[in-house]
Amino acid sequence: MKPIFRRVAVIGKYQEPVTGAAAQGSRQVIDGIAQFVVGQGCELALEAQTAGNVGLNCYPTLDVDAIGRQCDLCLVVGGDGTMLGVGRRLASYGTPLVGINQGRLGFVTDIPLGSYQDALTPILHGDYEEDARPMMQARVMRGEECVFEALALNDVVVNRGSTSGMVELRVEVDGVFVSNQRADGLIVASPTGSTAYALSAGGPMLHPSIPGWVLVPIAPHTLSNRPIVLPDSAEVSIKVVGGRDVSANFDMQSLASLKHGDRILVRRSAHRVCFLHPRGWSYFATLRKKLRWNEGGS
Known about the structure:
This protein is of the alpha/beta class. Helix content is about 20%, strand content about 40%. It has 7 helices and 18 strands.
C-alpha cells in the first residue's frame, strides 16, 4: 500500500545551533526518522538549517517556505516551542504537521520519540485524527500606522517591564469599551494557548474546538477583574494608557518599548494550523498526562 503523502519534510530545532554530543544525538534522531520515511515509500526533504545544524548532507534540503510550497506533510521533531514556530511559518500553505517529541510529552508535539515508527506508519497511509487550530493575526498601531504585525498560535501578551509598576490598558471588543485595566499585563489566548501562559495566570482551558479567545489579566489591581471568554469572530483592541517599558509578545516574537496611545489589535487569522495525530488521539488524555491528573488513580 502506497503512502498518501508523497513528499514529506522533516524539521528539527532549526533555529538553534547544536554542538558536541547533542549534535551527534540529534543527527542520529533526524537520520533515523529520515530513513524510516524513505523506507515507507515517501520522498524526503530535510529543512536546510536542520540538516546543517546536525551535519546531514545526504538528503535533499529545502528552506521552510519551499517546504510549504512543495511538501505534502511536515514532521516536526522537538517540543511545542519548535512546533509553534513551524506552525506560524507554514500556516499560509496549509501544510499538515505531525509532532515528534524529543523530551516530555507536549500538548501539540504528542508522539513520543521512542514510538514514532508505530505512530507514523498509519498516518503516512492515511489513518489519522485531524486537528485544525485557529491562529491570531495581531497588529500594533501607532496612530494610523501599523508598526508591527505577526501571527500567533498561542497568545498575544501585553505586559510591563521587569522593573516597572503596573500598566494601564484600555480594552475594547469590536469597538465597544470593556474596561480600563490596571495589572501587570493582559493575555489574549487561543484555545491552543489556553494551556500555556494564560493557564498560569489563572485562565480557563478552552477545548480546541471552541471558536473563542480567552482574555486573562496578569496580577490585576482589582480582584473582580477576571478572565473572560470571547468569540473569536471579535476584534480585541488593547490600548496602552499608562505604564513604563510596556512590551507586546506574539508567541515567541516581541516588540519592546510600546508608547502610550499604541493599540494592539487582535483578530482571527484567515489561516489555521492543521495537526495530525495518531488514530485514537484524545485531547483529554493529553491533559491528563501533561497536567498529571489522576496520578495514582485508575
